[in-house]
Design brief:
Bound molecules: 3-acetylpyridine adenine dinucleotide
Distance between the termini: 43 Å
Largest sheet: 8 strands, mixed
Radius of gyration: 23 Å
Strand content: 15-25%
Structural class: alpha/beta
Helix content: 25-40%
Shape: globular
């Protein structure tokens, strides 16, 4: 374990960037190189990558197509970078991020192994004072938090954990030296992480127990070599390719469907779903088959009936198939993993329904369920998700104007403006914070960082000490977000998207669900109106 570098005490920065993942790397580049400000970044990790640094579990790959999941600011790199697969594995994504950081000489401005634990607004100085886990303090006029949407891990606590004689891993803190071949392994959790890992582990472990609480709809991913036609399209005109992507609702590399599931015959619906299933990609299955899957209950049912039918066709054992079939709406973050349902036909894989028979406690030899059944394993893996969206910000003890603690502000019903700012916390910006558009991330990070850089420049050009959104503007933004989200079925299912996966967390909408094109237009209107709803102090 590396320790944080010394020498930060007393440092005075224009901008402190927290995080060196997709968001933080570009923010650093933008403010340091384009705005020519004195900026440094800080990351708990020992290298760049953010989520792609930490998530090294077997089978980890990006389930968004590679050409969408990359930066666009460096058009030369866009043309030159050769993705090997349509959905690259984690090491390839991480090597891409290292290549970006090296090409733009970013690492010299990043303090690795340095966790920021505290941020306090000093009113008299109009600056933030930041404290590291090692107790060093320094100041910055502006703070940009690129701390990730899904980085605050959620690990349930079961009685008897200390008794376990085997090994415990969390998927998002995977050690490089983990060797599970020939072992008996239990995976708790069947979200995106769990499903990817389950398929991969089933190839090498002796016995795999999949502890599933709530089944989800899993469509194939459609892995394969990177498509040549996409490569050609990027090389021809990278900027046009980027602009085309941003002008969609979800920025997943396709224009969303415009035809209702009700406007076609049952046979045609079946054909559309079958084509989407064969092509793979969870977001395409949800958003590019029919326009109303996520807003209309009957359209949603057509999609869920199709997936349930696939499960019954693929899974040999009818009882296992039944347990794998979800019964809620298809309105969570969509899952896509090749061979997921096929994996349950393997002799070394056992599905355990822990909703029906809950995990009671951990024993020395494994897990005991409420029925008294004992699952003997050598390894327990938590793929139990994250305190998403807000959890990452709350890990930093943040105090804004007039002693307002972020933890208090967000205690009952978190609010924020455009996913970018929080009233009461001047000169502090978030990248992909709460109430950001519900989209793929890297291109949207860039768009948001460009906006942040514009706001910083405007503040400096005006000779102002602070830039802050008003509570009124923030409340209006959140109200508008709530109204759109209430029209979708996402509000009727339980998932990290509405905070219902974390006990005690406010169950509410946390996204702007009107789509990226509309988001850009709304933010532009506010900006063009002289930053309407913001105050320069
Ligand atoms: O987390 P999740 P994730 N006992 O919250 C179960 C991104 N991602 O890490 O549904 C038993 O989706 C929980 O059960 P339930 C992506 O955005 C991207 O898988 O609460 N089970 C659920 O099954 C994704 O959406 C990629 O009943 C418990 C699972 O754990 C997001 O990360 C890859 C439990 C958690 O699922 C989060 O995915 C991976 C308990 N006490 C992830 N507590 C890419 O490909 C929780 N569970 C880019």
């Amino acid at each position: 374990m590396t320790r944080e570098a010394q020498g930060l005490n007393g440092l005075e920065l224009d901008v402190a960037v927290i995080g060196a993942g997709f968001a933080g790397l570009y923010a650093l580049k933008k403010v340091r190189d384009d705005l020519d400000l004195n900026a440094q970044a800080f990351d708990d990790a020992g290298g760049v990558g953010g989520t792609w640094y930490w998530n090294r579990y077997p089978g980890c790959r990006v389930d968004t197509e590679a050409h969408v999941y990359q930066y666009s600011f460096d058009e030369t790199l866009m043309k030159e970078w050769e993705w090997s697969e349509r959905y690259p594995l984690q090491p390839e994504v991480l090597s891409y991020m290292n290549a970006v950081a090296d090409k733009h000489d970013l690492k010299r401005s990043i303090n690795f192994s340095t966790r920021i634990v505290k941020a306090e607004w000093i009113e008299d100085l109009a600056k933030w004072e930041l404290t590291t886990a090692g107790g060093q303090t320094f100041r910055a006029k502006f703070v940009i938090e690129g701390v990730g949407l899904l980085s605050s891990t959620k690990v349930p606590s079961f009685p008897g954990e200390a008794d376990f004689k085997g090994i415990v891993h969390h998927a998002a803190r995977w050690p490089d030296d983990a060797d599970l071949s020939g072992k008996r392994v239990a995976v708790i959790g069947t979200g995106s992480t769990g499903t990817q890992m389950i398929v991969e582990l089933s190839k090498s472990v002796d016995e795999l127990f999949v502890l599933q609480r709530t089944p989800q709809y899993v469509v194939p991913l459609g892995c394969g070599p990177f498509p040549e036609h996409e490569r050609a399209r990027i090389k021809e005109d990278p900027a046009a390719f980027r602009d085309w992507q941003l002008d969609t609702a979800a920025v997943f590399g396709f224009k969303e469907a415009t035809i209702s599931a009700h406007d076609v015959t049952a046979e045609e619906r079946e054909r559309v779903f079958e084509d989407a299933w064969q092509n793979g990609n969870g977001f395409a299955f949800m958003l590019n088959t029919f326009s109303d899957i996520i807003v209309d209950e009957a359209a949603n049912k057509a999609a869920t009936d199709f997936v349930r039918k696939k499960i019954s066709e693929i899974v040999d054992d009818p009882e296992t198939a039944e347990k794998l079939m979800p019964s809620d709406f298809y309105a969570k973050r969509p899952l896509a993993t090749d061979d997921y349902y096929e994996t349950f036909n393997k002799d070394n894989v056992t599905l355990v329904d822990v909703k029906e028979d809950r995990i009671d406690r951990i024993l020395a030899e494994g897990l005991k369920l409420q029925s008294g059944r004992v699952i003997e394993v050598d390894v327990i893996i938590y793929a139990t998700g994250f305190d998403a969206i807000t959890g990452n910000y709350l890990k930093i003890d943040t105090t804004g104007r007039d002693g307002l603690a972020l933890a208090d502000k967000w205690k009952d019903h978190p609010t924020a403006m455009m996913g970018l700012c929080i009233s009461g916390f001047p000169n502090m910006f978030m990248i992909f914070g709460p109430f950001s558009p519900f989209t793929s991330q890297p291109l949207v990070h860039e768009w948001q960082v460009n906006w942040i850089a514009g706001a910083i420049k405007e503040t400096l050009d005006r000779g102002a000490g602070s830039f802050e959104v008003t509570q009124k503007a923030e409340d209006e933004w959140v109200k508008a977000c709530d109204e759109v989200a209430a029209m979708t079925l996402f509000s009727k299912t339980d998932s990290w998207i509405n905070g219902s996966n974390v006990e005690g967390k406010s169950r509410q909408n946390y996204f702007y669900m009107a789509g990226m094109a509309q988001y850009m237009s709304d933010v532009k209107d506010i900006t063009d109106a002289g930053y309407k709803g913001f105050a320069f102090g």
